[in-house]
């Protein structure tokens, strides 16, 4: 019997706050989702929250911290033999406070190792995989706040966010000839969560709002900018399923049932 296999979309860091929102927005838009994250309570909570969603599959591979980790992920993806047309990367370590000048230099080095280099490792291996697809594919990073100005008490986060923004610009240029559109959704305010809701400002977006705007980048037809600022006006429920609007080539396959 022949069947149609829709391309799936990969979410790195799916167990994090923003990753959770991206997964929800993709499912809301009708896309099959492969959620990748470290095995633990957050991924378990993701599975429980979307337990009724047949389009969601979880892959608990641990963190991507190196080329070896990223290469292993790609090897596992190739075994699935399923088209991959987009990747969302929401990778970040827990936020730590404190004046940068009060920290040893190794503190900033460690934060760059944790918050910027994993993005490079992931992109180095996933962008070539996306390039094997027909048509334009997408690699979208989610960036945190205060990349353009110092964040008092969190200066290291401003530095790593600025580095990640420049990495996006470089990847955008280098991936264009491959037919892969690399962009960053820059979220310039903290994300409102149940834990911080009591002290959150009115303009702080929710995780699902961030996810909806990120997903909307898949259907934009205008000239792509490397860095796109979060806009609440783009954080709307999609009016129709994503696969009705996103021109994915559908692959047929045979099964012996």
TrEMBL record:
Lineage: Bacteria, Pseudomonadati, Pseudomonadota, Gammaproteobacteria, Lysobacterales
Keyword line: Oxidoreductase
Gene3D superfamilies reported in the protein's UniProt record: NAD(P)-binding Rossmann-like Domain
InterPro entries for this protein: NAD(P)-bd_dom_sf, SDR_fam
Family note: Belongs to the short-chain dehydrogenases/reductases (SDR) family.
Name of the protein: NAD(P)-dependent dehydrogenase (Short-subunit alcohol dehydrogenase family)
Organism: Pseudoxanthomonas sacheonensis
Pfam families: adh_short
């Amino acid at each position: 019997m022949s069947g149609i296999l829709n391309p799936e979309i990969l979410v790195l860091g799916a167990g994090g706050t923003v990753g959770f929102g991206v997964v929800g927005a993709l499912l809301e838009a009708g896309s099959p989702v492969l959620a990748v994250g470290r095995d633990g309570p957050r991924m378990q909570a993701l599975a429980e929250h979307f337990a009724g969603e047949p389009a969601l599959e979880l892959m608990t591979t641990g963190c991507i911290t190196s080329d070896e980790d990223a290469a292993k992920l790609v090897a596992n993806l190739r075994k699935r033999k399923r088209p991959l047309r987009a990747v969302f990367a929401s990778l970040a370590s827990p936020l730590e406070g404190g004046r940068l000048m009060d920290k040893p230099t190794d503190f900033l080095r460690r934060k760059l190792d944790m918050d910027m280099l994993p993005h490079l490792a992931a992109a180095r291996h996933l962008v070539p995989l996306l390039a094997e697809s027909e048509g334009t594919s997408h690699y979208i990073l989610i960036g945190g706040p205060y990349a353009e100005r110092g964040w008092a008490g969190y200066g290291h986060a401003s530095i790593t966010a600025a580095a990640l923004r420049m990495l996006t610009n470089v990847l955008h240029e280098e991936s264009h000839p491959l037919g892969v559109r690399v962009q960053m959704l820059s979220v310039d305010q903290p994300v409102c969560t149940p834990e911080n809701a009591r002290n959150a400002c009115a303009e702080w977006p929710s995780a699902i709002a961030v996810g909806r705007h990120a997903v909307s980048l898949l259907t934009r037809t205008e000239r792509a900018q490397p860095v796109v600022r979060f806009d609440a006006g783009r954080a709307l429920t999609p009016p129709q399923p994503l696969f009705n609007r996103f021109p994915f080539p559908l692959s047929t396959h045979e099964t012996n049932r």
